What does this fold into?
Amino acid sequence: MRGLLRFYRALNALCYRQVRRKAGFAGSQCVHSGTVSGSKAQPRFGLLFDIDGVLVRGKMPIPAAKKTFQKLVNSQGQFVVPVVFVTNAGNCMRQTKADQLSHILGVPIAMDQVIMSHSPLRMFTKYHEKCVLVSGQGPVLDIANNLGFQNVVSIDTLRESFPLLDMVDHNRRPKVPSSAIANLPTVEAVILFGEPIRWETNLQLITDILLTNGNLSGAHYNQMQSHLPLLACNMDLMWMAEAQSPRFGHGTFLVCLENIYKKITGREMKYEALMGKPSELTYHFAEYLIRAQAVERNWTQPITSLYAIGDNLMTDIYGANLYNRYLEERTRRKNSNVVAKMATATGTSSALPQDNDQFENAWESELAPPSATTCKSILVCTGVYNPHTEVPIDANQCIKETVFHGHRDFRFDPALVEPGHIVQDVADAVELVFEAEKFAPP
It folds into this structure.
């Protein structure tokens, strides 16, 4: 956790310095120092977009997406409202994803408008110099290096170093007896970026690493009470591509790994950290990026409302509602403190309330406190959620637990998977927000 706080303190300072240089700001507060035409509409809200199932399906843009984003930018190509893309994808770097979105949507997207599931890994500085095994697909070694990890080993490297360990595919079995490569360092932690291509190979070798304490030259030792630190990005059980039904996501791979480990050892596999949606920290950082955009554009109105648009009840809606609960409790406590101070000043109270409950998060001292007071969830029907096959939900009916698709380490709460609104697509979602905020693009 301390590594997390150091990372966000550094990232907060870096982003703020960049914004201040661009916008001509001084001091630590977001105070407007330029001139803004009073005739131009200034938004008091920000939009958080999921990508897969909301804007694209696989590599194909959803028809409503490009049309919608043409309305979200002005003639100079600037966004008329603050926008951040919050994705659980983890197979590329932020700049690559920003470039992909720019091409698909036909509008300029900056790297600072994108949050990947692996972005928080920069925080874990205590592992940056250790030998870490990475699993996933795409340029996983480059991604790890970009995040600060200096001693990285891939699954392919393990397989090449210990060819007798990957035996499921008969065509890939070694033809002659092989010996292990002796100079491979002992693995000290495991990072799971996303779903791999060969699940059987990754499941086997990751399990081997956990059961040998990082040294594949030895045999399994099932009596270990704990295993190497395990950090996982992206808990999506399923995601929506071009097919008619959702496809397995990294969350499905995690289910397999967790159950294999438990079946072999009789113990639960434990994570050092789970990141990506529905983590509250992901939304807190997204809110910070929303405010940074407002600062850069010289918008003086505070951003008080966030609208999270997604297609997955168990990640997008759960995460947005969880962060909304945090914001509401934070506002309640702030108001209670004000009332208590007034009571103390008038002599009707002798003490202030104690601020020691679960909502006293360390984030607030590391990132600037959020200006938003609400985070409203909007569910679209173009991705994982299908109104014709899912449990019916509406504004007056709370969803009931039938099959929980969230990760095992997140408890089921019906209120957290109940969307604030259900609309057909992203165009309807943005129109709904504009109507609710009485916002007319300039």
The radius of gyration is 24 Å. The first helix runs from residue 2 to 23.
